[in-house]
């Protein structure tokens, strides 16, 4: 049925936003007209016409969003060697040595996490295993890239240990992601189809590129699998202003793609030990502010004056405080991205400034062991969720794909359970309820007048256990009534 337009859903049970408008959880029928929910009534009360899907009591929720995705890098990750299970630098290098050389004469791996390895990545270790074939290993957090000598020479970089960090690492990622547009668009289409299978109807695209052109091309080629808000980076701010791009405006005639925010990466990451923190890392300093407060104020001032909101990457508590200072100084609107370590006083400051906290719950679990080693003496709140919500901050959940898998149910389950193994929940007081996690993952509600971006689930999310929540069986996904999965 993929690609078909649905006119009605018969016998669905509403859960999540919209359920509060119904008297009970008995099945109802939804009428869809012109991409919008036109009516809701008890099953059998309305005469349904057109293409009717019998949901047989399945649960319906609003379409799910991933609010932080690097779209092309996420789409290309499936073509790269997975290194997430490598337990040492030597093992990662040996895995890459066995990889077949790509048509562009490179080997590319992704997803390694060296923060807990017993040995450090070195140029010599990688050279010994990979020889003269240019070899690139991308950290799971994308803030560092480990290259052998052949790759460093090819790219015109040098590093004693073979590891490039922050802006140099981002430049390598930009080059590796700059594949032929046809190739990139096919990869994006395939990845988006998989995402639709998990209930995704919208993403916020933080790809480090001029995304307006890419999405114009994809829409012109018929892309129709989810809605997109795309980011603009500081290098392209002048161009965006000159072209009159404003946050929230539709891109051309498409109602699927809209202009997002200026994205500023103000500090590093925990995995690379570069997130800017008040307390020092063991033997590694306090991290780095990649954009200091005066420059951040200038960027937000220019963006706000042109009608662009801002999304500021701030992982460490020093970076979060700097970002809040800049938002307060400029009056700009927008989001704090990640907010992984936040001073207690800054939690309420996010709320007072009317900012959104765009957070990735799975990171708390993936980083759990790293945080216990490197942030053990921090006095700020680590990976706050409930604290932010109690302070009145609007939360939006995401994955940061490819850093974590693009699966909204994984993010929801991580927020609700704060554990994905046999250990007790991480800071259980920071858990969200299922209703709160779903509300932070959607942009609409199941009620008349709202867009018919809908997900049919075979299990009630509100009563599902942790395993069922993570593996939520999605029967069908609708985008404006159009079937994108099912």
Notes on the structure:
This protein is 30% helix and 23% strand. By secondary structure, it is α/β, with parallel strands linked by helices. Strands 1, 2, 3, 4, 5, 21, 22 and 23 form an eight-stranded mixed β-sheet that branches. The chain has an eight-stranded parallel β-sheet with strand order 6-12-13-14-15-16-18-20. The longest helix is centred in the middle third of the chain and has 16 residues, at 181-196. The mean pLDDT is 97.
- Measured by DSSP, the beta-strand proportion falls in 15-25%
The shape, in one word, is globular
Distance, first to last CA:
6 Å
* Unreliable runs: none
Q: Main β-sheet, in a few words? A: 8 strands, mixed
Helix proportion = 25-40%
Q: What is the alpha-carbon Rg in Å?
A: 23 Å
Mean pLDDT: 97
Total beta strand runs: 23
Number of helices: 17
Q: Helix/strand-derived class?
A: alpha/beta
């Amino acid at each position: 049925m993929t690609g078909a337009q649905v006119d009605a859903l018969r016998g669905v049970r509403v859960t999540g936003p919209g359920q509060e408008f119904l008297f009970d959880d008995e099945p109802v029928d939804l009428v869809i007209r012109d991409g919008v929910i036109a009516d809701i009534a008890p099953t059998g009360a309305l005469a349904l016409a057109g293409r009717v899907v019998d949901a047989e009591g399945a649960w319906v929720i609003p379409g799910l969003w991933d609010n932080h995705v690097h779209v092309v890098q996420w789409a290309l990750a499936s073509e790269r060697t997975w290194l997430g299970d490598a337990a040492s630098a030597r093992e990662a290098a040996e895995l890459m040595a066995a990889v077949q050389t790509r048509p562009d004469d490179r080997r590319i791996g992704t997803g390694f996490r060296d923060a807990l390895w017993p040995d450090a990545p070195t140029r010599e270790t990688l050279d010994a295993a990979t020889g003269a074939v240019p070899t690139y290993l991308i950290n799971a957090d994308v803030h560092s890239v480990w290259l052998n000598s052949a790759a460093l020479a090819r790219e015109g970089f040098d590093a004693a240990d073979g590891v490039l960090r922050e802006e140099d690492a981002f430049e390598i990622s930009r080059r590796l992601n700059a594949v032929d547009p046809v190739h990139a668009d096919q990869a994006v289409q395939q990845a988006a189809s998989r995402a639709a299978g998990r209930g995704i109807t919208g993403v916020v695209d933080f790809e480090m590129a001029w995304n307006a052109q890419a999405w114009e091309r994809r829409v012109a080629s018929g892309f129709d699998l989810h809605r997109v808000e795309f980011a603009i980076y500081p290098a392209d701010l002048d161009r965006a202003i000159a072209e009159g791009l404003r946050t929230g405006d539709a891109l051309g005639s498409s109602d699927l793609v809209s202009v997002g925010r200026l994205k500023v990466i103000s500090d590093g990451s925990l995995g690379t030990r570069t997130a800017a923190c008040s307390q020092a890392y063991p033997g590694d300093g306090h991290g780095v502010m990649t954009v200091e407060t005066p420059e951040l104020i200038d960027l937000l001032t220019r963006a706000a004056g042109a009608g662009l909101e801002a999304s500021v990457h701030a992982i460490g508590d020093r970076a979060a405080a700097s970002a809040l200072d800049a938002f307060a100084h400029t009056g700009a609107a927008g989001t704090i991205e990640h907010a992984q370590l936040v001073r207690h006083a800054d939690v309420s400051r996010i709320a007072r400034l009317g900012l959104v906290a765009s957070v990735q719950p799975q990171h708390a679990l993936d980083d759990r062991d790293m945080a216990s080693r490197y942030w053990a003496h921090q006095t700020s709140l680590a990976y706050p969720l409930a604290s932010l919500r109690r302070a009145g901050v609007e939360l939006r959940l995401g994955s940061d794909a490819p850093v974590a898998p693009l699966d909204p149910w994984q993010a929801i389950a991580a927020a609700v359970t704060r554990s994905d193994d046999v250990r007790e929940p991480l800071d259980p007081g920071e858990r969200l309820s299922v209703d709160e996690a779903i509300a932070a993952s959607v942009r609409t509600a199941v009620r008349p007048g709202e867009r018919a971006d809908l997900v049919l689930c075979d299990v009630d999310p509100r009563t599902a256990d942790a395993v069922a929540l993570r593996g939520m069986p999605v029967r069908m996904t609708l985008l404006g009534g159009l079937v994108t999965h099912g």
